[in-house]
Amino acid sequence: MPCSFIFAQMDFISVFTDWFWNQSLLETLGVITGLLCVYLAAKNNIWNWPIAIISVLIYIFIFFESKLYADTGLQIYFLMMNFYGWYFWSRKPELKKVPVSSITFKEIILSVAGILVFTAFLGFFLYNRTDASFPFIDSFCTACSLVAQVFLARKVLENWLIWIFVDIIYVGVYISKDLHLTAGMYALYIIIAALGYRDWRREYQGSRVLLKAQDQIL
Fold first, then answer.
1. What is the pLDDT of residues 72-99, one digit of tens each?
2. In angstroms, rounded to a whole number, what is the distance separating the alpha carbons of residues 146 and 74?
3. In terms of Cα–Cα distance, which of 13, 16, 30 is closest to 181?
4. Domain ranges of the chain
């Protein structure tokens, strides 16, 4: 093996090690808990909610320091929704799991309208009244996340498609703010959300088949 190749590898490892140890401990903890809670949600595991509560508390401080004010407010909303989701998923102890449902046409229309209105109002407010970074992009991603979180808490299948879309945008935003670990976390979120959609879709289709079989018997 050429010596130049070995030295190149050593340089890469050294650069990566220096970069890693220069990352914020708080952001590292946020990434770990964030990935874990999304993974558990994709696996339909109720323990995603308490871990998500820890993650959003961390990111309230991170995003505020980065002047991503819409994201800061979003984390506060997530905090409340995580408590609600924890309650909703556990409110019927006699059932193993709350069943997965699919989005309705009415929910699509209301969601799109809500996202557009929210983005316009919050975007203009942040643009004119604050020093927020990317006020309109941040507001749009926040609006999409609000909708997706409601659907996640209510176990609506299509929440994962919204997360995939918004997480792609977030990766670019966080790279531009030098939140590299967070950007990497959101890149992994895209993969986890895709797997979550696949698994939830299988469960939803399975429940539909079971209901049809029961109807035929009756």
1. 888 998 899 899 889 888 875 544 567 8
2. 7
3. 30
4. 26-91+107-217
